[in-house]
Amino acid sequence: MDKAYFIDGGISSNPLHLEAVPWNGGKESYLDQGLRVVERFSHFDSSFSSGISPSSVGGDAFLLPEIMGKEQGFGSQFVGASDDSSGKMNLAPLALPPPGSGFGERASMAKYSLLGDRSFKGMNMNNVELGQRSPIPVGNVKLSRICSSPSLNHGGSLPEKQITTQIRRGSRILSASEGKSRKLPRLSSNDDSSVSEQMQRAETGPKNSNETNSKDRKACKRDEDGSLSFKCQEGSNLKLLKPEETAKIQISSDEKPNRDSNEKQKTNQKPPEPPKDYIHVRARRGQATDSHSLAERVRREKISERMKLLQDLVPGCNKVTGKASMLDEIINYVQSLQRQVEFLSMKLASVNPGLDFNSENRVAKEIYPSNSPSLHRPLDSFTHSIPPTQAPSFNEDDLQSIVIMGFAQDHSPAFNPHST
Amino acid sequence: MAMTSHRNPSFPKSKAAFRFIRIMRRLRRRTAVLPISHRYHVIRAAAYTSMAYAAGPRRAWSRALLGMNNKRRKTSTSHGENPRSSLGCHFEAEEHLRDLVPGGSDMDSASLLDEAGHYIECLKAQIEIMKKILLGYS
Predict the structure, then answer these.
(1) CA–CA separation, A297 vs A283, rounded Å?
(2) Rounded mean pLDDT of chain A?
(3) Alpha-carbon distance A124 to A133, whole Å?
């Protein structure tokens, strides 16, 4: 591939903030030069992160602390609201957790696993949701917080690395739901924490509007973790609580140091601590609670979720059902797109030498005596013309002037045919 | 079908277009005397490179296209590390997809689908860019 791709053509100030890669005279390999150019992407990282869209963000641990900051603000609100004994999940004004309530201290670990590219998506969506419906999801937040970790202060202090399977008892739920506010401080052990969680769920059950439930499900669908399944059943589990035995599998390590920071997190989001590696899944009713099968299910859910997204991208996939045929459709579509690119490049190749070089070179030198500054103007108009409008707003004169300028400044690099 | 706005931050069209034009500009004199097949390959390479450049280094496929195969980050796909783990009985199709998407052999199924989606988006945008360029020429 031509090294000239990565060499700036002598443009002093770049309207698109591209930086010049110095020409090494062929000593540097193509890869190294490509690396240097791509390292400039760090400049664009900010634009990427600021323009986080659900489909575009790559998982990046660096940006998580920013979002964590927002979450902490919310978390403190939630902690304050946990002490509200009225049972309404009102957002009390920011209050510190009283020492008596074990909630905030108990809910230590938010376990997430940073998976792929949707980490931000989940977080951002949840942040937005938090901002929009602050009182309502408090209970949900606490639910997830609590259940994600065993209690630390009271009752059982669990070993650091463990795989705990907590089984809930339905009867406890009902009794707990009656005297919820009183029972809250007492819930200390693992079982209790799970009970409190269910109790909270019971609390929020009648309160939960349909939209909250649906939002929870949406939120959980966006999550990539096994916590996906956890949130998804918050609404549906309410009815199934009594006879249901659910297994919660936690693969946790080192909960204590993160206790305080995790209090303020929504556990159904990705954690800001990159090295944490958790799967937080709850088995549905009537399904195997084996850790392997749960992991399998998580994987399958992730894959099906992405297949759905792909369905929107690929035209004509709506009518097709089933993974195999959808995959075939996707493959066909990618192939057709690639063929289109090849066809267009062939067309461009045939059009290219159509310009008369020599005369235009002379003309260019007359019009643009100094190369570098005059390059800005046509380039500016060129670059501005493309983004705002979809219609072909190409200024042919600009394009040709750019072409001409290229001749005047040509570096004459070695030409290497590209081998893909 | 979802109409992605041309202000899609994951693939700034202006960047891709600018890059592409610049590359072509430089190649014009070099490749004028070459046969069309050579030129075609060069231009196709330019198209993919500019597309990968505009997509950014965050995407595995763009990194693969640009040859940045040494991943600096430690946060690899922690779950589903098995790169050949199939989607579940859809072996042929998945293999095919891996061949199509650049860098597909190193990914697990879930991220493969992810990358394929983004790749499709960027391909569409790149095609539009090239169509416009052609319009400008003709």
Answers:
(1) 9
(2) 51
(3) 14
Phi, psi of A226 (to 5 degrees): -70, -15
Residue pLDDT, tens place only, A163-174 = 444 444 444 444
In chain A, which residues have their Cβ closer than 8 Å to the Cβ of B2?
312-313
Q: What angle do CA A246, A251, A253 make, to 5 degrees?
A: 140
HSE-up of residue A117 (Cα within 13 Å, Cβ side): 25
Give rounded-to-5 percent helix, strand, coil for chain B.
65, 0, 35
Please report the residues numbered 23 through 82 in chain B whose beta carbons come closer than 8 angstroms to any beta carbon of chain A: 23-32, 34, 36, 38-49, 53, 56-59, 63, 66-68, 74-75, 77-80
3-class SS at A370?
A: coil
- Rounded Cα distance, A10 and A341, in Å: 29
Q: Which residues of chain A have pLDDT under 50?
A: 1, 3-28, 34-35, 37-38, 44-271, 273, 356-397, 399-420
Q: Does B96 touch chain A if contact means CB atoms closer than 8 Å?
A: yes
- Whole-structure pTM value: 0.43
Q: Tell me, what's the pLDDT at B10?
A: 60
pLDDT confidence of residue A338: 92
Q: Is B84 on the interface with A (CB under 8 A)?
A: no
Best of A35, A39, A306, A385 to mutate (most B CBs within 10 Å, chain B): A306
Triad A298, A301, A304: Cα angle to 5°: 150
